[in-house]
Amino acid sequence: MDFQELQEDIKQNIKYINEYIINNIRIENETLFQACIHLFNAGGKRIRPYIMRTVYSLFKKDNSLITPIASAIEILHTFTLIHDDIMDQDEFRRGFPTVHTKWDENIAILAGDVLHSLVFSIIGQSDFRKEIQTRIMIDFSKTLIKICEGQTMDLQFEKQENVTINEYLKMISLKTGELLALSARTGGIAAEVDEDLINHLSNFGLNYGLAFQIIDDILGIIGEQSKLGKPIGSDLRQGKKTFVIFYALENSSEDEQKILKDILRTHNLSEEKLKKGIEIISKSGAIDTARNLANKYLQSALDNLEKLPSSNGKNNLIQLTKKSLNRKF
Amino acid sequence: MDFQELQEDIKQNIKYINEYIINNIRIENETLFQACIHLFNAGGKRIRPYIMRTVYSLFKKDNSLITPIASAIEILHTFTLIHDDIMDQDEFRRGFPTVHTKWDENIAILAGDVLHSLVFSIIGQSDFRKEIQTRIMIDFSKTLIKICEGQTMDLQFEKQENVTINEYLKMISLKTGELLALSARTGGIAAEVDEDLINHLSNFGLNYGLAFQIIDDILGIIGEQSKLGKPIGSDLRQGKKTFVIFYALENSSEDEQKILKDILRTHNLSEEKLKKGIEIISKSGAIDTARNLANKYLQSALDNLEKLPSSNGKNNLIQLTKKSLNRKF
User: Fold this and answer.
1) How many angstroms separate the CA atoms of A234 and B260, rounded?
2) Is the CB of A108 inside 8 Å of chain B's CB atoms?
3) Residue B253 has pLDDT above 60, yes or no
4) Rounded to a whole number, what is the distance in Å from the CA of A202 to chain B's nearest CA?
C-alpha cells in the first residue's frame, strides 16, 4: 500500500461524492442554486466523506448506504465554509471567489442555510434503522453547534489581547477537530460497531483534526508558496492569530510582545518587519512546540487507528494521517 | 366559544412552548447562548406552534409528543427572522434590538445556524415512529429551503423595476405561507390522519399565511399606530415594495408610476409626498383589490378548516383566522 494507491482511492471518492451532491441539490431559484453549488465546483479533496466511507467499508461490503451520509458531511462542511467566509471577509477559497464575493452576503447567508437544511433531509431519507438514523442526526446537529461555538471563540479571540494556549486548543478542537471526529465516528456508528471502537474512531478524527490545524498554523508562518500555496509569513501579514502567535506572545519578553502585537495590527507589512516577526516567533520556541504538539496528536491519531481491523482501508487511513505532515496533495 | 377563550388558549400555549425552548437550548459559550435566546425573550404569539398543537389535539388527547415539534417550528421561524433581519438591515423586532444590532452580524449568523441545527436534533429525538419522524424531518427541511427561495425572490424584487402580482404572490407563499402550511400539516401528519385531511390542513395554513401577509401589506399603507404599531404609510416611508405597491405600479398612469417610484426611492419623505403616494395607491384600486384577495384567502382557509371534526380546538382555529382581519392581539 503506497501513497499512489491512497491518491487513487481519494480520487474515486471525490467522484462518488460530487455526483451524489450535484444530483441532490434541487432549487428552483437559479441564483440561489448557483450559489449553493459554487464551492463544490471549486475542487476540494472531500477528506471528511473519504474518512467516513473508508471507515464504513472496513466493516460493510456495500457502501451505497453510507454515501448519502458522507455527502451530507461535505455539505455541512461547505455550509460552514460559506458562512465563515462572510464572517472572516475572505475573498477567495480554493482559488475561486467566495460565495459572498461572487454574489453578495445575503445570498451567501441563504445558500449556507439551504445547504444546512439539506444535510438533515439527506440523513432523514437514509435507509438505516431508526435508532441509527436518529443517533446520526443528533450527532450531526450537536457537532454543528460545537462548530458554531468554535467559530464564536475564534471571532472573540480576534478582539482579545490574551488567549491561553488551552483556550486556543479548545477553539480548534471545536472548530476543526469535532467535524473530523464526526466523520470517522459516523462510519462506525452506521456500521454498528461496538462503542469502544466508535470512541477510537472519534479520537482518531479529533486528533487528526488538531494535528492538521496546528500544521496549518506552522505553515502560516514558515510555509512556502509551493506547499498549500501559502507564502512565508502569510498569517502574520493577515494579522491572523494562531497557535504559534499565541505561544510566542506567552513566551517572549515584554519588548518582543509589543513588537509582535504591533506587527499583527499593521497592514502592508514591510519585509523587514515580517522577518523580525518570524524571528521572535522562532526564538520563543513556538515553531518547535507546535511541531511537537502536532506530532503528539498525529501519534495519538495513529494509535487509535491501530485498533481497527487490518485492511487496505485501514492502511489508507494511516497513509492519509502520515501524509498530512507533508501536505502536498 | 368566544375571542377571550382563544386568547386564553394562546396564552397557555406560549407558556408551554417557551418553557420547552428555554430548557432545550444548551450552549456553553455565553455570548452565543444569549444571542440564541434573545428573540424568544422578546415576546411573540407563537402562532405556528399554536396551530400545530391545536390541530394535533383535535385527534390525540395527550399532546406531550407534539410539543417538542411545535417548539421546533418556532425555533425554525426564529432562526429565519434572525437571518432575515441581517439581510433586511432591520434594527428592531417586537420592540427589541435585533440580534445583529445587539451583538453583530457574525454572532447573528452563528445564532441562526445554532437554532437551525437545533430544530433537527429536536425532531430527531421525538418519539414518533420512524416513518412519521422521517416525513416530518424532510418536510421541515424542504419547507426551509422554500422559505430561503422566497427570501431570495424578496431580495431580488428590491432591485427589480417590474414585478408582476403573480411573482409577488409566489414570493409570499414561499416566504410566509409555506411555514404556516407546515405548522398545520405537521399536526395532522403527527396524528396520522388521512392524506385528504392533511391536504386540507396544509391549504388552510397556506391560505391563512397569504391572507395574513396581504393584510400586513394593507396595514403598511393605511395602518394606524394603534393596530400592530404601524403608522400610516410606513411601508412607503421605508420604500418597501409590497402587494399594494406592485398592484399600484401595474395599474396607474405613467406619470403616477413615476411619482410612486420616486417616492419609493426617497428617504425622509415629506408628509405631502406621503399623502400623494397613498392617494395614487388608493386610486389604482390596490387597497380594494388587496382586501378582496385577503378575503378570498381567508375564506379558503375557513373552507379548509370546515373539513376538521367539530371541537373547541376547531372553533379556536376559526376564531384565529377570522381575527387576523382585525389584528389587535
Assistant:
1) 52
2) no
3) yes
4) 20
Q: How far is the C-alpha of A275 from the C-alpha of B207, rounded, in Å? A: 66
Q: Report domain A194-329's class.
A: mainly alpha
Residue B39 near residue B82 (C-beta atoms within 8 A): yes
Judge whether A131 is closer than 8 Å to chain B, CB to CB.
Answer: no
* pLDDT higher than threshold 50 for residue A172: yes
CA A218 – CA A210 distance, rounded (Å): 12
Residues A46, A16: contact at Cβ < 8 Å? no
Name the CATH superfamily housing domain B3-321: Farnesyl Diphosphate Synthase (1.10.600.10)
CB pairs under 8 A between A and B: 122
Q: Residue A79's pLDDT is what?
A: 98
Least confident among A5-9, A20-24, B30-34: A5-9
**Which chain A positions have a beta carbon within 8 Å of B86's beta carbon?**
106, 109
Instruction: State mean pLDDT over A187-193.
Output: 98
Q: Which grid coordinates are listed for A70? A: 458522507
B152 with A32: Cβ contact below 8 A: yes
A128: nearest CA partner in chain B: B130
Distance from CA of B171 to the nearest CA of A (A): 11
Mean pLDDT of A9-22: 96
A2: which DSSP letter?
-
User: For residue B173, which of B240, B235, B243, B227 has the smallest C-alpha distance?
Assistant: B243
Per CATH, domain A1-192 is 3.40.630.30: no
A123-154 pLDDT tens trace: 999 999 999 999 999 999 999 999 999 999 99
Q: Which residues of B touch A106 (CB under 8 A)?
A: 86-87, 155
Q: How confident is the model at residue A226 (pLDDT cuts 50, 70, 90)?
A: low
Which amino acid, one-letter code, is at A268?
Answer: N
Closest chain A residue to the Cα of B143, Cα to Cα:
A117
pLDDT of residue B52: 98
DSSP B76-126: HHHHHHHHHHHHHT--EETTEE-HHHHS-HHHHHHHHHHHHHHHHHHHHT-
CA atoms within 13 A on the CB side of A291: 8
- Least confident piece of the model among B107-116, B123-132, B152-161, B217-226: B217-226
- Grid cell locating A238: 493577515
| B110, B120, B121: residue with CB nearest A148 | B110
Separation of alpha carbons B89 and A68, rounded Å: 37
Q: What is the pLDDT of residue A2?
A: 67
Percent of chain B with pLDDT over 70: 95
Q: CA nearest A80 in B: which residue? A: B113
Domain with CATH 1.10.600.10 in chain A: 1-192, 194-329
Answer whether A133 touches B (CB < 8 Å). Answer: yes
Residue B329 in this model has a pLDDT that exceeds 50: no
ipTM: 0.94
Task: Give me the pLDDT at residue A235, please.
Answer: 87
Q: Which amino acid is at A231?
A: P
Instruction: Tell me how far apart the alpha carbons of residues B42 and B99 are, in angstroms, rounded to a whole number.
Output: 11
